[in-house]
Design goal:
Blueprint (H helix, E strand, L loop, with lengths): L1 E7 L6 H11 L15 H6 L1 H6 L4 H17 L2 E8 L9 H12 L4 E7 L4 H12 L4 E7 L14 H9 L3 E6 L6 H8 L5 E4 L7 H10 L2 E4 L1 H6 L11 H7 L2 E4 L11 H9 L6 H14 L4
Parallel strand pairs: 1-2, 2-3, 3-4, 4-5, 5-6, 6-7, 7-8
The protein binds zinc ion.
Length: 296
Amino acid sequence: MYADLHRHLDGSIRPAVLADLARAAGVPVPADLAFSPGMGLAAALSRFAFTLSLLTTPASVRRVAADMCADAVAERVTTLEIRFAPQLHVGASPAAIVDAALDGIDGRAGLVLCGLYGEPPAVLDHLVDLARSRPGVVGIDLAGGPAPGHDWSMDDYAPAFRRAADHGLGRTVHAGEGRPPAEIRVAIEHLLAQRIGHGTSLLEDPAVVDLVLERGVTIEACPTSNVHTGLLPSVAAHPLARWLALGVRVCVNTDNTLLSAVDAPEEHRRVRAIPGIDDDALARLIAFGHAGAFRR
Ligand SMILES: [Zn+2]
């Protein structure tokens, strides 16, 4: 029934499993771990340091990946993509971590490997190499966000994304997440992105809207996440109804089920309450999600 193309493994641990892993590691779960409205992207991203500290081993990654697939069934999500950055799970090689995730997924979801803004492009190159030999990996992503101290710009990741395209891998990029729409243009034109994560600034540049329409790009909207990072005052303020009216292919996603305390049915309920979203519009959003899934 639902599709969820944008769900981060390290932000989507079951609360009981998080408590379990923390107990085993001998650390308390921080009281302020969950996202809260308006906290900002930097504070939101900082929460992953804790979840990642509990997910260093292949066994923990396998467990969470398997749980996510079971949760999706309970949520009636029939098209799921799980994404994560294996290089951040430091208890084993990225290859071993990817294999653990694929083992946990067991064919029930697509896996997307995330490079991170600010990382040397060689890291993304390595992820493309890992993906090539593993059919369960369906695409690559650029996640996190640009920061002033970074040595690398988006364009520096273009060769790795182009190589991914040559090998038939899907490409998505976290872009225009409260940053100018020019970022969306670079992602599409230089990184050959077929999907854009967030893209909340899209309407600020009609030429970029035209580009998205012309290329048939799918926007992965994550409205609750956008409220948490302070981009929107409420889910009702999300522009996806206007995007749909313009013909943009947009789907609804959870981003992080643990940290945003949301699941696919709840995210869709919130979107259904947005002015301009009726049952037909909701059905179109869901259809765009299924159609936008990466396939190899
Ligand atoms: Zn994301």
